[in-house]
Write a structure and sequence with these properties.
The structure is a single chain. The chain is of the alpha/beta class. Helix content is 44%, strand content 23%. The chain folds into four domains: 133 residues, Response regulator (Rossmann fold), CATH 3.40.50; 127 residues, 2-Layer Sandwich (Beta-Lactamase); 155 residues, 2-Layer Sandwich (Alpha-Beta Plaits); 238 residues, EAL domain (TIM Barrel). The protein binds ligand C2E and magnesium ion (2 copies). One magnesium ion binds next to strand 23.
């Protein structure tokens, strides 16, 4: 029985089948009785023809054959079974006693000869010998078949292995290689037999290959997972690899020894091994490697790769006394372009910048993207400083040409700062920083140009510029946070509102307070996008509180004069409130006196529009400016917020206390609310309470805190009372 992959399955043992052939019916009958009695399964055939017919159909283990029969005699039968390759043991039982007849019968394939009249014991012994011989032969045949099957199985496994499996002789020539080699390398296996393995090895891997292919070790010490490249037969079409000339493999090879070796230890006869195709792994590794060192949008090197190259380049320049330039390129007004045209267009634009800039460089230069719209360039081996200037001019010129994206024509420009090695810095860090500072100088001087770094740029003015540059990034990189400080009703100590106060988490300087950066943001007008961000962040928080079912609170937002000047000032506020589904009552705007005076003419109109939406207006830091009652009456102001410098010195009879008293009566006269900030002591609180202050704010009730802490404060005090704070 043969199963699906060609293995023979053994059958159970049956009683031996014996065919008795004679022309004498009485002989047939007597032999049949004897054989049956001895436990055999006998059939009879009268004559040679009848015997052959049965032999064709049934597999007899043994045949008792008479030689002399009419018609087809015993000799004919013997010749026929040998011709037809019928497997049975033949014992000739014959009255024929001539030597030649017996010899002929034996040469014709008979196993033994018993003379008639036979001796039953002798005949049975002969039969038993014949049968055991037959059994042995059968077993042998079965074993041979099993061996053949096992060989087939192993060949099947080896040939269907996903790996190349090979055997080399001790000269390193292939004596076996499986079918897989054809799929993977495109070579016919027959062509490889007898060829030296080195013909398949990529030139650069030859040394390593010699070491592994000549592997003499076995077991755990043998070569494992050695990576090599094999050559691919180029003539074969349709090879599926990314590099069609080589196949990366991982090789495992073991030395082979003949156990019968002369030295008793075994004689080295060759090597066998397997080579695994690691194309996919290599491709993944390359991709991961690529992603770690490249910017995916532009395919340019990223910061890590740039820094690596710059390190190498500075080491080289130092050694050979060469000049090199580091450039910092920033696309002018990119944020505006990105916001107005959409991020997809912004991305496309950055790709164009990358392409055009690359087009201006030599092969040895490096252009990298640092993130956002910032690119850095490394120009090694310059003969003079001016060469860097020429490259910068070339880049600026190429960027100025109109860019056509999705049917739109866009114009861009860039600012480039250049730092020369070694004059503007000797380390990677200082070079990049100097180029960045130089870039910021050109940015703040009308943009679209380039500038070399010089030491003077490092003075206090630069510090200003550094903050300005960092502020730009702070917005893009989400470094701002809104803190909230409670406003409290002095009579009940209940929280009645919050003031939103911005904080900046600077990556190097840590927490930066608004007084440090708001004035600069105002000067550079960055306060406009920063203010937009504060408004949005505050509204987000208000929505969260509302959605959590917390009591409705009014949040004050500080507004700079520059923001009011913007044409879309009102629309932005109303738009943001509408988008958040918040009514105007949720918001109060705190504007300084200076902010109001600066915009006197159109601020009135704008604030009225806001006021109509329920938004209230407070004058912040009141008392520090030059407020005149007359203009206060023109504005839709609801609240005067006494500056904390006055609150700080509240003592009966002091000058500050007089001012606080004066503001209180002014507020009363103008029918405005009076609130106070910077309340730190219970005395201050009591004094302000007596004056009719409706809201107070200060460290006495709590410092400005993060949104998270504020939320906790509100959920922990459902009555909104902060009176316990007063205990201390
Ligand atoms: P401000 O609007 O007068 O805010 C009150 C300032 O006084 C806050 O300082 C607050 O932390 C502080 N303060 C509150 N209670 C006390 C107290 O009891 N004692 C003391 N010593 N100080 C107290 P902060 O947060 O540093 O803000 C400073 C200024 O920065 C603000 O003064 C405001 O003019 C400006 N600012 C803050 N956030 C923004 C903003 O989002 N936009 C704009 N344009 N300006 C902002
Ligand atoms: Mg304020
Ligand atoms: Mg204030």
């Amino acid at each position: 029985m043969i199963d699906s992959i060609g293995m023979t399955v053994s059958e159970p043992d049956d009683p031996a089948k014996i065919l008795v052939v004679d022309d004498d019916p009485s002989m047939l009958a007597s032999l049949k009785i004897m054989l049956k009695a001895s436990g055999y399964s006998p059939d009879t055939a009268q004559g040679g023809e009848a015997a052959l017919e049965l032999l064709e159909q049934i597999d007899y283990d043994l045949m008792l054959l008479d030689l002399q029969m009419p018609g087809m005699g015993g000799h004919d039968v013997l010749r026929q079974i040998s011709r037809r390759d019928i497997q049975t043991k033949v014992v000739v039982v014959s009255g024929e006693t001539s030597f030649s007849a017996v010899k002929d019968a034996l040469t014709e394939g008979a196993y033994d000869f018993v003379r008639k009249p036979y001796d039953a014991g002798e005949l049975l012994t002969t039969i038993e010998n014949g049968l055991s011989r037959r059994r042995l032969e059968k077993q042998h045949a079965a074993m041979a078949l099993a061996l053949e099957d096992s060989e087939k199985l192993h060949r099947y496994i080896v040939n269907n292995s996903p790996d190349i499996v090979y055997v080399l002789d001790k000269q390193g020539q292939f004596t076996f290689v499986n079918d897989r080699v054809e799929d993977l390398l495109g070579f016919k296996r027959e062509h490889l037999i007898g060829r030296h393995y080195s013909e398949l090895i990529h030139e650069n891997d030859m040394v390593e290959a010699t070491y592994v292919f000549n592997e003499r070790r076995t077991g755990v010490r043998a070569s494992k997972d050695v990576e090599l490249r094999l050559k691919i037969n180029d003539q074969v079409k349709g090879v599926r690899y990314f590099d069609t000339h080589v196949l990366p493999i991982s090789l495992h090879s073991v030395g082979m020894y003949n156990p019968m070796g002369l030295d008793g230890k075994g004689e080295f006869v060759g090597t066998y091994g397997c080579a695994r195709d690691i194309t996919d792994r290599k491709r993944n590794e390359e991709l991961i490697n690529y992603q770690a060192y490249h910017d995916l949008l532009t395919s340019l090197p990223n910061r890590a790769l740039f820094e690596d190259r710059l390190n190498l380049a500075t080491a080289h320049a130092r050694r050979y006394n060469e000049l090199l330039a580091v450039m910092y390129l920033d696309v002018d007004r990119f944020k505006l372009i990105n916001d107005s045209l959409g991020h997809a267009m912004g991305d496309r634009l950055l790709q164009v910048v990358a392409e055009r800039t690359s087009g201006c460089l030599r092969a040895e230069d490096t252009l990298a993207r640092f993130g956002g719209d910032e690119f850095t360039l490394l120009l090694p081996q310059l003969s003079k400083k001016e060469d860097a200037g020429a490259v910068a001019r070339k880049i600026l010129e190429s960027l100025r040409a109109p860019i056509h994206i999705e049917g739109q024509e866009v114009f861009i420009s860039a600012s480039i700062g250049i730092a020369m090695f070694p004059s503007s810095g000797e380390t990677m860090g200082t070079l990049v920083k100097s180029a960045d500072i130089a870039m910021y100088h050109i940015k703040s001087n009308g943009k679209d140009g380039y500038r070399f770094f010089c030491e003077e740029m490092n003075d206090s003015y630069t510090c200003h510029l550094t903050i300005e540059r960092d502020l730009h990034r702070a917005l893009e990189r989400d470094q701002f946070e809104v803190f909230f400080q409670p406003k409290v009703n002095p009579q009940t100590c209940q929280i009645v509102g919050m003031e939103a106060l911005i904080r900046w988490w600077h990556p190097e300087r840590g927490l930066v307070m608004p007084n440090e950066f708001i004035p600069i943001a105002e000067k550079t007008k960055l306060v406009v996008p920063i203010g937009d961000w504060v408004l949005q962040a505050t509204c987000r928080e208000l929505c969260r509180w509302r959605d959590m079912g917390l009591p409705k609170l009014k949040v004050s937002i500080n507004i700079s004069a520059i923001q009011i000047e913007q044409d879309d000032f009102v629309d932005k506020i109303i738009g943001t409130l509408d988008d958040s589904g918040l009514s105007g009552e949720y918001i109060e705007l705190e504007i300084t006196e200076y902010g109001l005076m600066k915009n006197c003419a159109n601020a009135v109109q704008k604030l009225r529009r806001l006021s109509k939406r329920g938004i209230t207006i407070a004058i912040d830091d009141f008392g520090t400016g030059y407020s005149s009652l007359s203009y206060l009456q023109n504005f839709p102001v609801n609240t005067l917020k006494i500056d904390r410098s006055f609150v700080k010195d509240i003592k009966p009879g002091s000058r500050e206390t007089c001012i606080v008293d004066a503001i209180a009566s002014m507020a009363k006269g103008l029918k405005l609310h009076m609130v106070a900030e910077g309340v730190e002591t219970v005395e201050q609180l009591e004094y302000l309470k007596a004056l009719g202050c409706i809201e107070v704010q200060g460290f006495l009730f709590g410092q400005p805190q993060s949104a998270k802490a504020t939320l906790e404060l509100m959920t922990q005090r459902p009555d909104g009372k902060l009176s316990s704070c007063l205990v201390s």
